[in-house]
Design goal:
GO terms for molecular function: G protein-coupled receptor activity. By secondary structure, this protein is α/β, with parallel strands linked by helices. 41% of the residues lie in helices and 15% in strands. The protein contains 26 helices and 27 strands. The strands form eight sheets. It has an eight-stranded mixed beta sheet with strand order 10-9-11-12-13-16-17-18, with helices on both faces. It has a six-stranded mixed beta sheet with strand order 1-5-2-6-7-8, sandwiched between helices. The protein has a three-stranded mixed beta sheet with strand order 25-27-26.
């Protein structure tokens, strides 16, 4: 839509110009009156002339011109730069030999509309209506009006030129370029950086000796990127200057991983309160690109000061702000201090200032020279306080602006272009016919082909008819400068003033950003807590941040927001690793845990925890088992030593030794439980566990059944029952043990015990390695042995009324009842335990207690009787203490029985 409107404006302008050309016989621009224009003109006529439209005075609210000059020496430096360059051309015998170059400089009053109106004076006219120098009724000799003449109702003059220097502001240069393109008048810009002029279809007669804004915008992004700033705000001017630059910034920011927090388009008179508050609301975007004209920039600085946000922002200012006079920036010293000023390549030309010093203010034809002198020196010629012969350049208010060097290069471009054209098409041309030789359309082609060494560097244009120069990056500081005293006399002194110090430069030809040796100052900024650790940034600790989000800590992932450089950090669970595609968390596989060395992006196996002999509980258990083994070994030794005694013989020695084997196997099993589990060890432990119980309780059941059968038989017929001999008892016990073995083998085949890893809670970094007895295997073993113990308990209960000296059944009862209590307590405790370590300890304790109880109740009383009780006493006590009338056969089992000869031997 914008380009469409531009085409409409261009078409209208073209029709306007050609309409004027076709009506010159009856109508002339002399008849057009533009009230309020400043008709002052600084000129020097030559054989070939160039025009210039400059911003020298300020405008008024009613689109007129005022008498107020731009501050300080502006109105001296810019016009005199053109005059100086023209003089250099005329003094160069190799450039336009035998010809002179002239100029006409007029004022646009800082108003695009007035600039367009003033540009009408440079439009070509028919010879029939205008003389060579000026239109009838208008004389340049009477063309100078005092600045106090605010308004003029005189018709427009005509200045014949081969080309013009564009207005300083891009917003003013755009409509003028449209009109000059329609009239085929070449126009060279020297401060017009807007990317609007890149479109050759809209501006075919425009060229410039300054780098376009697109390179300035890229230079800003390069500078921002080099300092690690990824989150910025942008304030840009309404119109082609700011809007085209913002398009470049917006389109190229992603290439540098830079996000734009907020952007504001502002006008010259816009209220900046909302803009200042918006910037402050996005305070993390400390870097702010200010691609605006001088007036809105100053308004923004004022609002920032009112808001109390001084030192909050890193200002990155365009050339328009960089070229603003110090007098206009000083009221906002605190805000502008430390700002980075981007300005196209310029140069201070010492001989130019020598030229200014040679100018006589009294005889100068520059109508703005005298009032500008008064502004700079702070004096008045009217009251005689000004001294015309003093050095004006020594005053502190003298700008020493480098930008006029570009105006000099623009003049030299015209001179070299005209020289090349004349040399090629009409080398014999003289001052009388040279204007006929220099055709404007041919001059345009010649201008695009020039190449020479100018004041700011090499002037030449690329294949796109564009100029690729260098952008200087200066930092605005408040430093001491050497100045002349205010009275203009005496020695030079030092005073504080705004100074632009060069810190870097950007070469548009190769895209390189190079820093100078000058250290950048950050003292003017507020010290705000960093969100990016210094270890994760390439910049030094003094460089401030301008980022949206800090890096996520290890174990966190990015929850992306709309802007690519903004995110929230969310922590993963303890057992989850961080994934990048898609960003989030993923649970590690069982038995693994996120690896902190890789930033929790991968998982490693969790170190296994298992019972070790050096642990506290295993040490205690091993010590107790060793004591139990020692004690049991003593009991076994006593059994061997007293094996011929009546007590030992009556206690079924063969079955007792079978039980001792089971007890020792059980103790060894407890010790093995305290070692590192392996598949083979776990298989062995399973069989040892099963057999230790089978060897203990199978003989015990056989003993209990034997006692019951013997006394049951005695109560009926006093005959010895069958199958009570030691051999038969061994056979019965072996059959029961064999049944256990077969059952264990079956369960081993069905569900083989092995070493297994267990992670009870997936969100805890704890994996245990233990022997898995398997639920079927453990259940079958427990059921079988509990049946044995229960059977023992039943038969022990049935023989509870035996005499005291037939106390084998009593000890069996005590043993099996205690065993039942142990296992009834063990089973729920074991199966409700959550840690395998605890289960292993419980199993070991239960096994140790079980076998120790068996030793205590089944064997220690007999050893005690053998050692401390007289055998004959035991015999004589037979039936004396019993409170029963039971007739016991001579073959009964008792603590103090008769000799084995009293018991009839029976076979199967």
């Amino acid at each position: 839509m914008e380009h469409l409107c531009t085409l409409y404006r261009l078409s209208f302008t073209y029709c306007l110009i050609h309409g004027f050309s076709s009506l010159t016989s009856s109508f002339s621009l002399d008849a057009i009156v533009f009230p309020g224009l400043n008709r002052d003109v600084y000129y020097k006529r030559g054989d070939l002339n160039i025009g210039a439209i400059m911003m020298l005075t300020s405008g008024t609210d009613d689109m007129g011109c005022s008498k107020k000059l731009y501050p300080n020496s502006w109105a001296i430096e810019y016009p005199e730069a053109v005059a100086f360059a023209v003089e250099k051309v005329n003094n160069d015998t190799a450039l336009l030999p035998n010809l002179t170059l002239g100029f006409y400089i007029i004022d646009d009053c800082t108003d695009p509309s007035i600039a367009l109106a003033q540009a009408l004076t440079f439009l070509p006219r028919n010879e029939s209506s205008c003389s060579i120098d000026t239109c009838p009724g208008r004389s340049l000799e009477n063309n100078s009006y005092p600045l106090s003449s605010r308004y003029s109702t005189e018709p427009l003059p005509y200045y014949e030129v081969m080309g013009i220097l564009s207005p300083i502001l891009s917003t003013a240069a755009v409509p003028v370029s449209y009109m000059m393109a329609a009239a085929k008048v070449p126009m060279i810009g020297y401060t017009t950086t807007s990317d609007e002029f890149n479109d050759r279809t809209l501006h075919p007669y425009f060229l410039r000796v300054v780098t376009p804004n697109k390179y300035q915008a890229i230079a800003m992004l390069e500078f921002i990127w080099s300092n690690g700033w990824t989150y910025i705000s942008v304030v840009y001017s309404q119109g082609t200057y700011g809007e085209r630059a913002f398009e470049t910034i917006k389109g190229s920011a992603a290439k540098y991983n830079i996000c734009i927090a907020v952007s504001y388009r502002v006008g010259n008179e816009e209220n900046m309160t909302a803009v200042a508050r918006g910037l402050n609301a996005n305070s993390r975007a400390r870097a702010v690109i200010l691609f605006a004209d001088e007036q809105p920039a100053r308004n923004l600085f004022a609002e920032i000061e009112i808001l109390g946000a001084i030192g909050q922002f890193i200002w990155i200012c365009c050339d328009s702000v960089a070229n603003a006079s110090k007098e206009k920036l000083l009221p906002h010293l605190k805000s502008v201090m430390g700002a980075f000023m981007f300005i196209y390549s310029t140069a201070l030309v010492p001989e130019f200032y020598d030229y200014i010093r040679r100018q006589n203010v009294s005889t100068s034809t520059n109508p703005w020279f005298k009032p500008a002198w008064e502004n700079t020196a702070g004096c008045s010629f009217a009251d005689g306080s000004c001294k015309p012969n003093e050095d004006l350049t020594k005053y502190a208010s003298f700008e020493y602006s480098p930008a006029p060097s570009l105006a000099m290069d623009a003049v030299l471009t015209f001179a070299h272009g005209a020289h090349s054209l004349i040399s090629q098409t009409c080398p014999t041309a003289n001052k009388d016919n040279v204007r006929d030789c220099v055709k404007r359309d041919l001059l345009l082609e010649s201008l695009f082909n020039v190449s020479f060494k100018g004041y700011t560097g090499t002037i030449q244009f690329d294949k796109n008819d564009d100029f690729q120069g260098v952008y200087f990056i200066n930092q605005m500081l408040y430093d001491e400068v050497e100045v002349l005293p205010s009275n203009g006399t005496g020695n030079m002194t030092f005073m504080k003033d705004l100074v632009q110090t060069r810190v870097a430069y950007y070469d548009a030809s190769d895209g390189s950003l190079i820093y100078t040796n000058v250290n950048i100052s950050w003292d003017h900024l507020l010290n705000i807590t960093r969100i990016v650790p210094l270890s994760q940034t390439k910049q030094g600790p003094e460089v401030p941040e301008s980022v949206c989000s800090g890096p996520c800590r290890p174990g966190e992932y990015k929850l992306q927001k709309e802007l690519v450089c903004c995110w929230d950090c969310r922590k993963c669970r303890d057992n989850e690793k961080v994934t990048s595609k898609p960003a989030g968390c993923k649970a590690c596989e069982q038995f693994t845990w996120p690896d902190p060395k890789t930033g929790y992006t991968s998982c490693l196996p969790i170190p296994l925890t298992h019972v070790q002999p050096s642990d506290t509980f295993p040490v205690i258990l091993i010590c107790l088992v060793l004591l139990a083994i020692i004690g049991t070994s003593f009991v076994v030794a006593c059994y061997i030593y007293f094996h011929e005694t009546r007590i030992m013989k009556a206690a079924s020695r063969e079955l007792s030794f079978l039980q001792f084997v089971g007890i020792f196997v059980g103790y060894i099993t407890v010790i093995c439980f305290q070692t590192t589990p392996t598949p083979n060890l776990c298989s062995a432990l399973y069989f040892m566990f099963c057999l230790s119980f089978a060897w203990l309780y199978s003989p015990l059941l056989v003993k209990a059944v034997r006692i019951y059968r013997i006394f049951q038989s005695g109560s009926k017929n006093n005959q010895t029952p069958r199958f009570v001999s030691p051999t038969s008892q061994i056979v019965f016990a072996s059959l029961i043990i064999l049944s256990q073995i077969i059952l264990c083998l079956i369960m081993y085949i069905i569900s083989q015990p092995t070493a297994k890893k267990t992670q009870a809670v997936m969100t805890e970094k704890f994996v245990e390695l233990s022997c898995d007895m398997t639920l079927p295997g453990l259940a079958s073993f427990l059921v079988y042995n509990l049946l044995l113990v229960s059977a023992c308990a039943i038969f022990a209960f049935k023989t509870r009324k035996l005499p005291d000296n037939f106390n084998e059944s009593r000890f069996i009862s005590m043993c099996v009842y205690t065993t039942l209590v142990i296992w009834l307590a063990f089973i729920p405790t074991y199966f409700t335990a959550t840690q395998e370590y605890v289960k292993g300890i419980l199993l070991s304790v239960a096994l140790l207690l079980n076998h120790t109880v068996a030793v205590s109740f089944l064997f220690i009383p007999k050893v005690y009787a053998c050692i401390f009780v007289d055998q004959e006493t035991l015999v004589t006590k037979r039936f004396n203490d019993g409170g029963t009338s039971l007739d016991v056969p001579a073959t009964c089992s008792r603590v103090g029985p008769a000799s084995n000869s009293d018991v009839p031997r029976t076979g199967f």
